[in-house]
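Lab notebook, bench 4. Still working through the backlog of constructs that have no structural model yet. Next entry is a single chain of 253 residues. Request: give me the structure tokens for it.
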Amino acid sequence: MRYFVVFFITLLSTISTYSQTTVSGTVVSDITMLPVTDANIININKVKGTTTDGKGNFTIEASPNDTLHISFIGYQPVKVRVTNDWIKNANKTRINLVEKAKVLEEVVINKYNLTGYLQIDSKLAPVQQRPFRYNISGLGYGYEGGDNAPGAFQRIVGSVFNPTDLLHNVFGKKPNEMRRLREMKKDDAVRNALASKFDRETLAALLGVTKEDIAEILERCNYSEEFIKSANDLQIMDAISGCYEEYKAVNRN
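Model written out:
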């Protein structure tokens, strides 16, 4: 019996060691073929992240069929599937990033006819209204209202309890994806990657939703249009996480 226990423990250790495999690669620019430093590499399946070093190299934990999301500012993000050959091959795989082609739109600067008198000029300058915030008693998180903030509280509760609402369709039908939020908040590399991004690409890939879904989720959670447009991806993730926790709490009650 004792030998069987030792054999069983050894077997589990071997399986655990085998399952914790890694892959290595090098990220380069598609045009210059030079290494891309500090590119973000995120394993969407395991919610683990890392960055490339000064030579564009990286190593990350991965299993066969995992998907790596690779991104860097100014380049098109790419998704790469991990294969058995990649894991078994000791050589680094080269991954090319393609630069984004952007067309700058015409910028129109409006002129204000200022008089030089503060009392008069202060009325000519546009004033941006601060969004309101509402709390559900006992839940501890705030909701940032938009232009129709006086009715925000009713819309929050109504949207959570309405079974045909987008929150139910996303939160209720994607429980595994939403559970990733907790893992995303634990991994410093993932958080650092999201803190430097404003395009929602990486966040959408991690949650398995579209960028349009993210904007609509935040709108249903009564975050202001200003916040939805200006917040970085880490702030957006925390906002969705808070809304999801409240969604679960209200449904339990």
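Notes after review: The beta strands are 22-29, 40-43, 48-51, 57-61, 67-71, 78-81, 93-97, 133-135, 142-144. Residues 160 and 250 are 7 Å apart (CA to CA). Flag for follow-up if needed.
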